Amino acid sequence: MERKKTILTPRPYLSWSALNTWEYSKEDYRKKYIMGEWDPPTPYMEFGKKVAEMLEKRELPTDAKLRHVFNFIPDYPIREHKFNADCKIGKENIRLYCIFDGYDKVNHKIYEVKTGKLWNPRKVRQHGQISFYSYAYWLKYKKIPEFDLVWIGTQEDEEGNVEATGDIEVFPATRKMPELLAMHTRIERCWISIKKMYSDEFKSIT
């Protein structure tokens, strides 16, 4: 019986955050995903987590501006939906791992919620996470999903605490096939490099 080949990577799947970290800095990827050295979350990350939990649990917040966000943000049939798809790289099937902030399965629509000081159409067009999720969806269903990015505006108060401004904007973000093909190239390049990095690291300690 042929033995199943072990994939030498820190994780048996690839997420957008891992791909984005690798593209931004190979050393940051090594520190986080191989050595397990994660930076503490920033105030903006903590605020984003707070918003995500509010929307997932559908709990009305006490803060007036967040309450406004809660009341006017688009509703999604499914929230925090974990999604996987197989991507073929050479002879390997690589699992792409996604978490959709909002998902309408019937209408093949994905929603991504972002906080931060400013999002605009140009930034949305360039955001790789949308292409990554759309490509994973196409791999599984052979259909490009409709996609919206929902921006919740934030600001810092006098003490440096992050809070909502009350602004909400929905940006159409549906991708086209050339963008999905370009994402495949990025995924392939990243996966091959990660395998080599992990193999080299493994050899250095054995």
Walk me through this protein's architecture.
- This protein is 44% helix and 28% strand.
- It is built from 7 helices and 6 strands.
- The protein has helices at 16-24, 26-34, 43-57, 64-72, 121-126, 128-141, 177-204, and strands at residues 13-15, 78-89, 92-104, 109-116, 146-156, 162-172.
- Strands 1, 2, 3, 4, 5 and 6 form a 6-stranded mixed beta sheet that branches.
- A hairpin with a 4-residue loop joins strand 3 (92-104) and strand 4.
- Mean pLDDT is 90; it is low at 1-5.
Keywords:
six-stranded mixed β-sheet; alpha/beta; 206 residues; disordered N terminus; 28% strand; 6 strands; 7 helices
Q: What is the share of helical residues?
A: 40-55%
For the biggest sheet, the summary is:
6 strands, mixed
**Helix and strand succession?**
EHHHHEEEHHEEH
Average pLDDT over all residues: 90
Short account of what is shown:
This protein has 206 residues and is α/β, with parallel strands linked by helices.
Helix and strand topology:
Blueprint: E1 13-15, H1 16-24, H2 26-34, H3 43-57, H4 64-72, E2 78-89, E3 92-104, E4 109-116, H5 121-126, H6 128-141, E5 146-156, E6 162-172, H7 177-204
Parallel strand pairs: 1-3, 4-5
Antiparallel strand pairs: 2-3, 3-4, 5-6
Helix pairs in contact: 1-2, 6-7
